[in-house]
């Protein structure tokens, strides 16, 4: 389990770095402590979102089936989280957003197999739950990112003439 936590933390930090560093390049002179704190906080948030992906997919699967699934739930394993870490490393914008998206689709497809087995759903229904969970978490974290950017952007005042 500790290997999964380390991989999720690394994936979260890498994903955050790929999103924050290009923004910081446009704002020279930012204090290093602020940059480091931002990367640490954003990395923890991204890691938490990644960690919630199987749990959210499991919760959706429970809503879809008429009787509670017999399994204990869906959890990350080192084999499942390793491609996620690769996708997070490729989050850097210059390395290709399309490849990044394709890897996330591959990770989601990898999560669909254990979800289908644990919940008793068919593969396509499980894949739909994983996709919906991933999209929902992605939209939520993007909304938070935009809110943070809006709040942290300095406002310019117009001179009084």
Automatic annotation (TrEMBL):
UniProt keyword list: Membrane, Transmembrane, Transmembrane helix
Annotated TM spans: 40-61, 82-109, 121-141
Entry protein name: Integral membrane protein
Organism expressing this protein natively: Streptomyces shaanxiensis
């Amino acid at each position: 389990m500790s290997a999964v936590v380390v991989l999720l933390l690394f994936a979260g930090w890498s994903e955050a770095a790929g999103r924050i560093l290009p923004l910081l390049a446009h704002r020279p002179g930012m204090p290093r402590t602020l940059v480091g704190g931002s990367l640490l906080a954003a990395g923890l948030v991204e890691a938490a979102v990644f960690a919630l992906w199987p749990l959210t997919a499991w919760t959706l699967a429970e809503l879809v089936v008429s009787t509670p699934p017999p399994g204990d739930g869906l959890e990350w394993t080192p084999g499942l989280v390793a491609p996620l870490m690769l996708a997070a490393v490729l989050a850097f914008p210059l390395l290709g957003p399309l490849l990044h998206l394709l890897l996330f689709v591959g990770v989601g497809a990898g999560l669909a197999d254990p979800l289908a087995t644990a919940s008793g759903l068919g593969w396509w229904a499980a894949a739909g739950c994983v996709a919906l969970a991933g999209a929902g978490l992605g939209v939520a974290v993007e909304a938070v990112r935009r809110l943070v950017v809006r709040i942290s952007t300095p406002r310019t005042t117009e001179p009084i003439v």
